[in-house]
Design brief:
single chain, 488 residues
Length: 488
């Protein structure tokens, strides 16, 4: 039994030391990492632009080196601010995301937890009356909520009511003795201690939502299950995103308490009033600023989680709408080819080998390209079509019957109709081979060229296609001339 308990404890310790939190605290440059992250990120600055972070980390390194700290293995990294930040992203201390149009860094839950453990704000953990009372109150409240005996719960509630009545009576009889500043200071430090755990809690909820997003996207891209099944799972998890993880359930409960804007406003007013009390002067500047930012820290935490939820829903919905397994496979194959090409290139090149940049795209080799839009005419007239002096031969059928109007036959037909004629009657009397729908358009064109006038009523004609199908057309009656009159 002892061996199994020892083995279990040892395995849990191994797993704990593999987390980025303890890796940060036990790393080679842990003091610099903690110091840099605590300077860059704060309650009112939860994200930092990537470019700004690279510059700030580089300036910190320069300042510390100028102060006498050498670039050895025990003190400061010997790389640039950009390389340091990229390493922090790889090991899970910083997360990258897009905030509007800017790429930013954000502390991960592991980094927030590490900063809480180091506690550079000066409010170290210590046993106090306030914290013990908070613990006892929490245990008593938990025991009362878990008690299934209604008689004991009723007795407990009555005892609480009697204690409140006694306090009310004492205040009615006269002013109560003021609480010493030392006790109020102790209470304030306890509040600060409790508030420092909020950022890590909110960040863990946001990261659990992002993990859900990655799982759904991965299932869609793998195409191992039907898209409909993945979509149904996404919709179900989207509806229950706050109930799918322990962090989400805890956040949903907290949101019901602090989601009311009036409660946040009341909290802010209470904090401002506390800072005006004499005992607040016993806190240092960092603690007073931290106490004043509790309400803002809650708002930012809730906003971070809700933003992660909206972004996950948007990304998954976009992936579902544009999901194309064939295209995704093509993209994957293209990326694999690019990676293979880079690996082959790096085997024959050294880091010092210069790389010639592609300054312009190759120009297509074409015969002529119009250089000016002022003249829309082509650069030259096309060559005349060559004729062999004999008609063409068709294998199956003469497809010319489906071509344009037979102008020659139509003009010869119109020439024998006299000076004027009704276009509808003329079309009805034409030969079947020239009574196609396109021939009606050709007859209208010839009539318009020779001169036409509106007639009375509506003409209805019947056109016949080459396959024998019939279609009727109706148009305003037209009286046309057989030939155009010469100008005098």
């Amino acid at each position: 039994m002892t061996g199994s308990r020892a083995e279990g404890a040892y395995l849990r310790a191994l797993a704990a030391f593999k987390t980025p939190t303890l890796d940060l605290l036990h790393g080679r440059y842990a003091p610099f990492v903690v110091a840099a992250l605590s300077v860059m990120f704060s309650a009112d600055r939860p994200v930092v632009a990537v470019a700004d972070a690279h510059v700030e980390v580089g300036e910190m390194l320069d300042q510390l080196r100028a102060s006498g700290y050498q670039d050895d293995d025990r003190r400061l990294p010997a790389t640039s601010g950009r390389e340091v930040c990229r390493y922090w992203v790889r090991v899970g201390w910083l997360g990258q995301q897009i905030d509007g149009d800017v790429e930013v860094y954000r502390l991960t839950a592991h980094a927030v937890r590490a900063l809480e453990i180091t506690d550079l704000t000066g409010g170290g953990s210590r046993v106090s009356n306030s914290r013990v009372r908070t613990l006892l109150d929490a245990v008593e409240r938990l025991a009362g909520d878990a008690d299934a005996d209604p008689a004991r719960r009723l007795a407990r509630l009555r005892a609480e009511r009697d204690a409140l009545d006694a306090q009310i009576a004492a205040l009615d009889s006269g002013p109560a003795a003021p609480i010493p500043d030392d006790e109020l200071l102790e209470e304030a430090e306890n509040v600060l201690h409790l508030s420092r755990g909020l950022p890590a809690d909110f960040t863990r909820v946001a990261e659990s939502i992002k993990a859900m997003q990655r799982d759904v996207i991965r299932d869609l891209r793998r195409d191992e299950r039907p898209t409909g099944e993945v979509l149904r799972e996404y919709l179900l998890r989207g509806q229950q995103v706050m109930q799918s993880t322990r962090e989400g359930q805890a956040f949903a409960g907290a949101l019901r308490l602090i989601g009311d804007p009036e409660r946040i406003d009341a909290l802010t007013e209470q904090l401002h009033e506390l800072l005006s009390r004499p005992f607040a002067q016993m806190l240092d500047a960092t603690q007073r600023s931290e106490l004043d930012m509790i309400g803002r820290r809650m708002e930012l935490g809730v906003q971070e989680v809700l933003t992660a939820q909206r972004r996950a829903s948007h990304v998954i919905a976009a992936q579902v709408r544009t999901h194309d397994p064939a295209r995704d496979r093509q993209v994957d194959e293209l990326l694999r080819d690019v990676i293979a090409g880079l690996q082959a290139w790096t085997q024959t090149r050294t880091p010092e080998t210069p790389v010639d940049p592609l300054r312009r795209l190759p120009v297509a080799s074409i015969g002529h390209l119009r250089q000016s839009l002022g003249d829309i005419r082509p650069p030259g007239s096309p060559a005349a079509l060559a004729t062999q002096g004999q008609d063409v031969e068709f294998v199956d059928a003469d497809t010319r019957a489906w071509g344009g109007p037979h102008y020659a036959e139509l003009e010869a037909y119109v020439a024998g109709l006299g000076d004027t004629f009704d276009l509808g009657d003329a079309f009805q009397d034409i030969a079947d081979g020239t009574r196609r729908p396109v021939d009606l358009l050709g007859l209208l064109e010839i009539a318009h060229r020779n001169g036409l006038a509106d007639g009375d009523g509506v003409s209805i004609v019947e056109a016949r296609r080459p396959d024998g199908t019939v279609r009727q057309f109706a148009f305003g009656a037209v009286i046309a001339r057989a030939r155009k009159e010469p100008e005098s």
